[in-house]
Amino acid sequence: MPKLSPRDIKRKIQGIRNTRRITNAMKVVSAAKLRKAQEAIYASRPYSDRLYEMLSHLASYADVSDHPLLEMRDERKVDIVLITADRGLAGAFNSNLIRKTEELIQEKKENNVEVSLILVGRKGSQYFSKRNYKVLKSYEEVFRKEINFEVVKEVGELVRSRYYNREIDGVYLINNEMITRVSYRPVVRRFLPFERIEEKRQDYSTYEFEVDPETFINRLIDLYLNYQLYRAMLESNAAEHFARMVAMDNATRNADDLIKTWTLIFNKARQESITYELVDIVNAVEAMK
Fold first, then answer.
1. How far apart are CA 141 and CA 133, in angstroms?
2. Which of 18, 23, 88, 214 could form a disulfide with 251 if both were Cys (CB 3.0 to 4.6 A apart)?
3. 95 occurs within a structural domain
4. How far apart are CA 74 and CA 166, in angstroms?
């Protein structure tokens, strides 16, 4: 590395300071968005859990032949719905999801199961579209402002129709999920077929139906699938803001350390420059005697 002059070092310090301002601003913005996103997921969880509980109870008594979405089949073809972010600068947020997806794909391939991908988010789309994977559908710019519910309905209808028509034998959902307010992790869950809870058996007499029970369950399944996708996107959105806030906080701290390090280098270079100038002056004076 060539030796830098004090002027070059000063410019480098100024560049680091400018970068620090950007990372600090991004941290503040992500923190503000995180609070709003966390409020959304904590508001959605009770409804989602209650919907799952009700559907589980009803599905325990459903006739599988009348409900193809509840039918368990041997896996020959499956879809994986992967939810990533549209933007980077969020640490390992996207890379952990991609690694988890590749592990699941490899596991299915070892069992001779064909895998198709449905990608929600630009980062996942960019990665898998450039490699030797079967991408069925990809959606970008989903999280730019608010979550696009039209994408939720389209993805839900796509996997539902493919499973209903026996084009696939299972659907898996992969996304980052907030575990606590200060931690998240990638999770893999089976999305279809719907898992019934046999031990919580209830009789239809527990419920009063104003429509045909089978029709009601079908509508409830549609609502459940769409809402679970929506909740997964909410979880992913909150986790992304948290990951970016942490990443930008670390970047800001690193910038502070770099500024201190380069300031010491600058002071040392300036002292050396002053010393050389003094030596030149002394040598000139001695030469004039």
1. 21
2. 23
3. yes
4. 11
What is the sign, positive or negative, of the torsion defined by CA atoms of 47, 207, 62, 149? negative
Alpha-helical segments (H) within 165-212: none
- The answer to whether residue 185 is domain-embedded is yes
Please tell me the pTM assigned to this model: 0.83
Q: Are residues 46 and 68 in the same domain?
A: yes
- The DSSP bridge partners found for residue 178 are 184
Q: Residue 205: which domain range?
A: 31-244
Residue with tokens 């990533």: 84
In tens, the pLDDT along 166-223 reads 999 999 999 999 888 888 999 999 988 876 555 444 454 566 667 776 677 778 888 8
What's the gap between Cα 148 and its chain centre?
Answer: 15
Q: Is residue 1 part of a domain?
A: no
In a domain, 64, yes or no: yes
Q: How many domains does the chain have?
A: 2
Instruction: Give the Å distances, CA to CA, from 230 to 4, 152, 163.
Output: 54, 6, 19
- In this structure, the answer to whether residues 267 and 181 fall within a common structural domain is no
- Considering the domain architecture, whether residues 150 and 10 belong to the same structural domain is answered as no
pLDDT in tens, 94-149: 999 999 999 999 999 999 999 999 999 999 999 998 888 999 999 988 887 778 78
Alpha-carbon distance of 73 to 75, in angstroms, equals: 6
